Amino acid sequence: MPNLLAKGRLARLSGLGSATLASLTMLAGTVLAATAEHAPDAAHGGEHAGGLPQLNPATFPTQIFWLALTFIVLYYLMAKKALPRVAEVLDARQERISRDLSKAASLKEEAEAVLAQVEKSLANARSEAQTLIGQAAADIEANNQARQAALNADIAERLKTAEANIAAAKEQALANVRAAAADIARDVAGRLAGVEVDAAQAEAAVAAVIEERRQ
């Protein structure tokens, strides 16, 4: 594609040069014809009128010849030397631009691929983080429930043990109270009534009184 563009530019320049050469040739022919018609008058007038030599009609054919020769030489140099060099420079510039555009497109694709990979990694990381957070919350809740259940069971066991100890202490205190009351009742009966009361009878009587007071 760059070669075609450069060749197109070169062809346009060559066509322009050819058209210019053709126009110059036609102009030179017209001037030569006019010079041939008016050469005697111009030469006669030139004898009486001085001036620049290049304005002398008698030298027009020679001037036009050298002008055409110079133009042909310049055209040859332009077509064979300058214009190909310009075409090479344009071609190299176009290739460099195309290479830069291709590299930019490749870098853009790589950047888009990296961005997509980063976004995918971030999405996976967020998903894993949410999963870990949910699992940690579930573990914490399970541990809390287990600790609460263990604490409730320990409290219930301690309450049960305390109630049993209290009941045992109460029974022991009642037994001691019954024994002391029975001894006191036997002692009072012996001193006041002179009656010897059996220990078992005294304890039974005290127990009956305590049971009646409970009710």
UniProtKB/TrEMBL annotation:
Q: Which GO terms describe its cellular component?
A: endomembrane system; plasma membrane; proton-transporting ATP synthase complex
Task: Report keywords, A-Z.
Answer: ATP synthesis, Cell membrane, CF(0), Coiled coil, Hydrogen ion transport, Ion transport, Membrane, Signal, Transmembrane, Transmembrane helix, Transport
**Which N-terminal stretch is annotated as signal sequence?**
1-33
Where is it located?
Answer: Cell membrane; Endomembrane system
Q: Does the keyword Nucleus apply?
A: no
* Any Pfam family the entry gives: ATP-synt_B
Is this entry keyworded Coiled coil?
yes
Main location (coarse class): membrane
Query: Topology versus the membrane, per the UniProt entry?
Result: Single-pass membrane protein
Q: Name one GO molecular function term.
A: proton-transporting ATPase activity, rotational mechanism
> Which stretches are annotated as coiled coil?
101-172
Task: Identify the InterPro entries for this entry.
Answer: ATP_synth_b/b'su_bac/chlpt (IPR002146), ATP_synthase_B_chain (IPR050059)
Membrane-spanning segments = 57-77
Family of the protein in this entry = Belongs to the ATPase B chain family.
Q: How does it assemble?
A: F-type ATPases have 2 components, F(1) - the catalytic core - and F(0) - the membrane proton channel. F(1) has five subunits: alpha(3), beta(3), gamma(1), delta(1), epsilon(1). F(0) has three main subunits: a(1), b(2) and c(10-14). The alpha and beta chains form an alternating ring which encloses part of the gamma chain. F(1) is attached to F(0) by a central stalk formed by the gamma and epsilon chains, while a peripheral stalk is formed by the delta and b chains.
Function in brief? Component of the F(0) channel, it forms part of the peripheral stalk, linking F(1) to F(0). The b'-subunit is a diverged and duplicated form of b found in plants and photosynthetic bacteria.
HAMAP family for this protein = ATP_synth_b_bprime
Per its record, how is this protein called by name?
Answer: ATP synthase subunit b
Which lineage ranks, top first, belong to the organism behind this chain? Answer: Bacteria, Pseudomonadati, Pseudomonadota, Alphaproteobacteria, Rhodospirillales
